[in-house]
Amino acid sequence: MDKKKSHHISDILSAGKQTFSFEFFPPRTAESSEQLLQSIKQLSFLNPSFASVTYGAGGTTRELTHELVVKLQHEVGFSIVAHLTCVGSSKDEIKNVLQKYQDNNIQNIMALRGDPPKGSSNFIQTANGFGYADELVEFIKFNFPKMGIGVAGFPEGHPESIDKRKEIYYLKEKVDAGADYICTQLFFDNNAFHNFREMCEKENIKIPIIAGIMPITTRKGMERMSELAKGATYPSKLINAVNNSADDSEVEKIGTDWATNQVMELIENKVAGVHFYTLNRSKATLQIFKSLNLNSN
Ligand SMILES: Cc1cc2nc3c(=O)[nH]c(=O)nc-3n(C[C@H](O)[C@H](O)[C@H](O)COP(=O)(O)OP(=O)(O)OC[C@H]3O[C@@H](n4cnc5c(N)ncnc54)[C@H](O)[C@@H]3O)c2cc1C
What we know:
The chain is α/β, with parallel strands linked by helices. The chain is built from 11 helices and 8 strands. Strands 1-2-3-4-5-6-7-8 form an 8-stranded parallel beta barrel, surrounded by 4 helices.
């Protein structure tokens, strides 16, 4: 039984208010499940515009992603975006995944190509699969025309791309294939976002661009993130502050303050929305909402 009617992200965005949304990943252990449940409980009080659930590298969390997506929409009452990648799946397999989402009234997909396997720099297209995300967008639009579709954008450039202009041209192909909005890779320097938005405008990309923000909370997390979010760089001022900090509680304060300032500046510059990479934790996001007196929906 649905607690709340699910919405298309495009409808939420076109209502004109800046959106605030959260990203979660499917937990793999009982302990991390508990941690996520606690975070969701806390974050649900913030009444997010929507939440999204990632799809593990190489499609490794297909079932877990599905489980969490359905739970968040039907039990918690969030409007949900399910991430989906082309890695290791044929068109038929992807069609089955999409059909299951449609049957469960999940109305939004984040359509992604996915990364090459660890240790390899080349993405390998699965037999009868997709080579790039725009093909997945087109496939969803054709087979599941009622699905809302988000796509990824990279303010500092995608790591495989050597020509930023061309990259924006390829992004436009995803938009023309039917994407409703763009959500960006995380970034720590707002200038990267503003330049990216300007390049998109010049390429006649008119759909909303949501900014991805991740508050740093530990030194280890910061190192791990530079491996995962390839292409996102840390400004030297932030690196120096973290290097000079005594412990992780100081890192958490530095990271949260940094993200708070980023969000404040983005709001002032009329960003369509801010998407928080929560890493299944709530403290930093709660603090940012409190400091800025943010209000979703
Ligand atoms: C908001 C967000 C959420 C994400 N969520 C997940 C997730 O849940 N699970 C996961 O595994 N990964 C996730 N990723 C990572 C993403 O899968 C990788 O960054 C991947 O390498 C690129 O995906 P894409 O959809 O941008 O690919 P594409 O848009 O296909 O682009 C991939 C590369 O190919 C280039 N390109 C595109 N079209 C063409 C063309 N026609 N000819 C030549 N080159 C082309 C692009 O410029 C780019 O360099 C996420 C990224 C972001 C920003």
